[in-house]
């Protein structure tokens, strides 16, 4: 049987070390073959703040994954028309790679809000959730959500080193002219500088 495939979805606006750290820990703990950085094309629920465009975010994610053995950026949602719904992305991956176990990597805040998604039951049918605890979210909220969706057994907890880096923080640092080294991959930093993003 094929090994597991991790799917880490997000705007990646921009990608940072926290994304790569989560990909690494999920791969190790869940014994995954690969982790996809699934770049949101058109966000279904909210506008992407300061969005340089899906193609640019995909290019940043591709640079972030460069040199990482088992992490790669996926253009699946960027190339698809219409909103980037998780259930449709997972359906396409399941069709492409039948028999492969899918893990959908999310923070506890996202897992707790799963009921507001389109077809959350389908998401949980297609993939197991790999949930990263967050200090501001009680894991009981996640458990309650999964129970209500009839999927109490469809989550794995991924403990990872605490990382306070966020895309919002990186954009703020760019605006203030603060250094970005060690917070984002070098290739991403170069692209932000070359294109004068987030200024």
Please, could you describe this protein's structure?
With 199 residues, this protein is an alpha/beta fold. It has one domain (4-195): 3-Layer(aba) Sandwich (Rossmann fold), CATH 3.40.50. 42% of the residues lie in helices and 17% in strands. It is built from 9 helices and 6 strands. The protein has a 6-stranded parallel sheet with strand order 3-2-1-4-5-6, sandwiched between helices. Strand 1, helix 1 (17-30) and strand 2 (32-39) form a beta-alpha-beta unit. Helix 2 (54-65) packs antiparallel against helix 9 (186-195) and helix 4 (86-96) packs parallel to helix 6 (120-126). The chain is globular and about 50 Å long. The relative contact order is 0.19. The mean pLDDT is 95.
The tally of helices reads 9
- The CATH architecture comes to 3-Layer(aba) Sandwich
- Which geometry do the CA atoms define? globular
Major sheet strand order: 3-2-1-4-5-6
- Say how many strands there are: 6
Just give the CATH class.
Alpha Beta
H/E element order: EHEHEHHEHHEHEHH
The figure for the number of domains is: 1
Helix content: 40-55%
CATH level-4 homologous superfamily: HUPs
| Fold-level CATH name | Rossmann fold
Flag low-confidence runs.
none
Counting helices, strands and paired strands, the structural category is alpha/beta
| Portion in beta strands | 15-25%
Measured between the Cα atoms of the first and last residue, the distance is 48 Å
- Major sheet attributes: 6 strands, parallel
Report mean pLDDT, rounded to a whole number. Answer: 95
Radius of gyration, Cα only, in angstroms? 16 Å
């Amino acid at each position: 049987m094929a090994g597991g495939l991790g799917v880490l979805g997000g705007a990646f606006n921009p990608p940072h070390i926290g994304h790569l750290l989560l990909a690494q820990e999920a791969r190790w703990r869940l014994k995954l073959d690969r982790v996809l950085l699934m770049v949101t094309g058109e966000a279904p629920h909210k506008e992407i703040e300061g969005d340089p465009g899906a193609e640019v975010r995909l290019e940043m994610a591709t640079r972030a994954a460069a040199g990482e053995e088992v992490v790669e950026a996926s253009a699946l949602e960027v190339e698809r028309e219409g909103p980037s719904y998780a259930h449709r992305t997972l359906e396409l991956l399941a069709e492409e790679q039948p028999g492969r176990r899918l893990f959908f990597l999310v923070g506890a805040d996202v897992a707790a809000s799963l009921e507001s998604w389109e077809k959350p039951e389908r998401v949980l049918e297609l993939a197991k959730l790999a949930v990263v605890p967050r200090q501001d979210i009680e894991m009981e909220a996640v458990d309650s959500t999964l129970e209500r969706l009839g999927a109490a057994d469809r989550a794995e907890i991924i403990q990872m080193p605490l990382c306070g880096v966020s895309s919002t923080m990186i954009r703020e640092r760019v605006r203030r002219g603060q250094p970005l080294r060690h917070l984002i991959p070098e290739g991403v930093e170069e692209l932000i500088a070359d294109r004068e993003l987030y200024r």
